[in-house]
Amino acid sequence: MTEDADLAGGFACPLPLTDHKTVLLAHGGGGRLTQQLIQSMFLTQFDNELLAPLHDGAVVTLGGARIAFTTDSYVISPVFFPGGDIGTLAVNGTVNDLAMCGARPLYLSCAFIIEEGLPMEDLWQIVLSMKKAASEAGVMLVTGDTKVVDKGKGDRIFITTSGIGLVPPGVQLDPRNARAGDKIIVNGPIAVHGIAIMSVREGLGFETRIGSDTAPLHELAATILRSGDNVHVLRDPTRGGLASALNEIAGSSHVGIMLSESAIPLTDEVRGACEILGLDPLYVANEGKVLAFVPPSSAGEVLRAMRAHPLGKQAAIIGEVVADHPGVVVMKTGIGGMRVVDMLSGEQLPRIC
Amino acid sequence: MRFIDEYRDREAAERFAGLIKGITTRPWTIMEICGGQTHTIVKYGIESFLPSGVSLVHGPGCPVCVTPLEIIDQAIAIASLPGVIFTSFGDMLRVPGSAKDLLTVKAEGGNVRMVYSPLDAVTIARENPGRKVVFFGVGFETTAPANAMAVWQAKKLGLDNFFLLCSHVLVPPAIDTLLSSPVNRVQGFLAAGHVCTVMGFEEYIPLAERYRVPIVVTGFEPVDLLQGIYMTIRQLEEDRAVVENQYARSVRREGNIPARKLLRDVFAVCDRKWRGIGVIAKSGYELREEYAAYDAGKAFDVAHITAAESPLCIAGEILRGLKKPHDCSAFGRGCNPEHPLGAPMVSSEGSCAAYYHYGRLLTTPAEATS
Amino acid sequence: MCLAIPGKVLTVDRTAEPAMGDVSFGGVSKKICLEWLPDVQVGDYVIVHVGFAISKLDEQEALETLKLFEEISGALDELGEEGNDAEIPRTKKDHPRDEERGTTGGA
């Protein structure tokens, strides 16, 4: 407990009760510990109506226009991986967060924190990747910042991008909007990005190249919104995998979710990699994937429209929202039994057992 | 995927379920001693395919769960030393010691690295001659040969900076201890298919005979488990008690002979303490004298480290199949995967963790203990 | 202790010490130690645990097990509802070769 007399008002809030004296890697994993950190450390101090949905971005009203506003940091290691690099992610990730709010992404900012000693050639590659991604997504980088830190104080490079976009009238996407009966659609095979990263990480290398599925989703999102009558939620499942995103939405909307294991698209290679390492694909990170919660009357139309789009060719209905077991995600397994798809606890680690 | 999908086939699972129902006339208690089988049983809801009289209990089959607390504390002490690169399988990184876990040591600046294979640790030792590379050698007989190979390789390459922190355990002595207990309720066993892939199943024959208990060597996919359970119940209903091999596609009677030879060359059988159970005679491996230079327990000053268990944790009764996780007052309350009080909640194969992740919201305590 | 999965052998290098090979799991391949399977060939399926192949999958046995599902299901269909008293076909595993009686086993 710290007492800092300089704080305005002359009183200091005690450190919220936590089990951990230091921040752990697992606090950044996207699962339960991340939730706890956000709830106890950040929300207690910054609670307001615009933050409350805890969606990928906030939608604020300025002079009659609805602006979506988001930010994200990219700290991935290794910086270069099959299918892209940290620069590609930094642009696509923020474009996607805006798209999940229903916005047309327009402008990005970019802050670099570069570790002393990073080869100039690497920085150049990253910048070129960002330019390519920005051009594909139709966004403009309009402001930025650059810092360099001592060698050893930053893992080669960290990038933070913020973005703003315009939300058309009538679009109301909110993680609290899922309703019993909604069909849940994913645009393609899951767990690709996480396995692509792991495949080049030290000690877990595969001979086969699996490339990250990073991609800008704003056009696919626009297609979904056009073809569906009253889409309730859009979410791109990143860290923590499909399971974490679905648990968050089930919690925010106070609904249950029922998944069908055999309906979830998975490539053979990603499946093989998960089997060797003992990883559950539901908890492995994605990048170019979107989950759409759609009222049953328009699910068919949305699915058709998604499948006609290059990023949605393998789109599938993987489950539905139910009124039972609110807040809990349940899955019918391949052999017909039922299991709970719990929130991730800490990081999912490869296992030998 | 070939050789996997066929054993996850829904129709086959339902057929076996029907068959089991057809032959079961009395209640039976069957135990498996394998974290991987516990995982499959809970993840696929295998118990929901069985008649209500058949009770599956989970034994001490998770090597992470049975590693004594003091060994984890020793691992943490070693990992915290400057100049040490501590390598381990992923499973062990989150197991809490008395004060912290290996991931915390990493957070505090320790050089802790996860590896997929013990040979990767040897490679790290070769590439870092100025550091001491320690590998946390945990596991049953399935993993022991791989760890033996790492030490054997290190010796062959003349490395002086590679060490094994050894915590190996053997299955047959554990079965013996469980069956000889006066409170034992287990009537049939599923033997771990991959342990037997390495060791064969000869060691189980005298156990089946001495205790008159059927033992069926079983695989890991849902249909394997159902077939293994079917074969066990059939023996019980017919009052037979022999060793049968369900996992014949991988297991031979003599096991893998070159792997077993390597085990004899590198390890000697010794007494071992099992967390939650106590010392079981001749139930572990230690490095032979000629490999003593690679023994982390000798190379580092950690032998004096002792530890005390949480009084709330009933791991011992859970690991012996006497209680189920739902019977524990702390399950899901003071004890959960983010804040585990004991071993079975830590590893994803531990009974408590498996029930917590897959089943706690679907099963009521009444159903769980029936 | 048990996470070991089947993979298909793509290459075998017996000149390496220990012997290694590329094994494919659903299309993703990894370098695996083949030292304990001196007879394994390209195209065989092996069970792999922590980077080591511990057994060669016996396709014949695997097929027998799968055929067994069908035999049993066939018998079950014939029986209809009266499962309890009827003759359930014994599995192949009842063959004396596969069943180890206590008296024949050694310590």
**How many alpha or pi helices of chain B?**
16
CATH architecture of the largest domain in chain B: 3-Layer(aba) Sandwich
Described by strand count, sense and barrel closure, the largest sheet of chain C is: 5 strands, antiparallel
Shape descriptor of chain C reads elongated
Structure description:
The complex is a heterotrimer of chains A (about 350), B (about 375) and C (about 110). Chain A has helices at about 30-45, 85-100, 120-135, 190-200, 220-225, 240-255, 270-275, 295-305, and strands at about 60, 65-75, 80, 85, 105-115, 140-150, 155-165, 185, 235, 255-260, 290-295, 315-320, 330, 340. Chain A is an alpha+beta fold. Chain A folds into 3 domains: about 1-45, no CATH class; about 55-165, 60s Ribosomal Protein L30, Chain: A, CATH 3.30.1330; about 185-340, PurM-like C-terminal domain (Phosphoribosyl-aminoimidazole Synthetase, Chain A, domain 2, Alpha-Beta Complex), CATH 3.90.650.10. Chain A has a 7-stranded mixed beta sheet with strand order 9-11-8-12-10-13-14. A 5-stranded mixed beta sheet of chain A has the order 1-2-7-5-6, with helices on one face. A two-stranded antiparallel ribbon of chain A has the order 3-4. Chain A is globular. Chain B has 2 domains: about 1-310, HypD, alpha/beta domain 2 (Rossmann fold, 3-Layer(aba) Sandwich); about 315-365, no CATH class. Chain B has helices at about 10-25, 35-45, 65, 70-80, 100-105, 120-125, 145-155, 170-180, 195-200, 205-210, 220-235, 255-265, 295-300, 315-320, 350-360, 365-370, and strands spanning about 30, 55-60, 85-90, 110-115, 130-140, 160-170, 190, 215-220, 245, 265-275, 280-285. In chain B, helix 5 links the parallel strand 3 (about 85-90) and strand 4 (about 110-115). In chain B, helix 1 packs parallel to helix 11 (about 220-235) and helix 6 (about 120-125) packs parallel to helix 7 (about 145-155). Mean pLDDT of chain B is about 90; it is low at about 365-370. Chain C is of the alpha+beta class and about 110 residues long. Chain C folds into 2 domains: about 5-55, SH3 type barrels (Roll); about 60-95. Chain C is built from 1 helix and 5 strands. In chain C, strand 4 and strand 5 form a beta hairpin. Mean pLDDT of chain C is about 75; it is low at about 80-105. Chains in contact: A-B, A-C, B-C. At the B-C interface, helix 1, helix 2, helix 6, helix 7 and helix 9 of B face strand 1, strand 4, strand 5 and helix 1 of C.
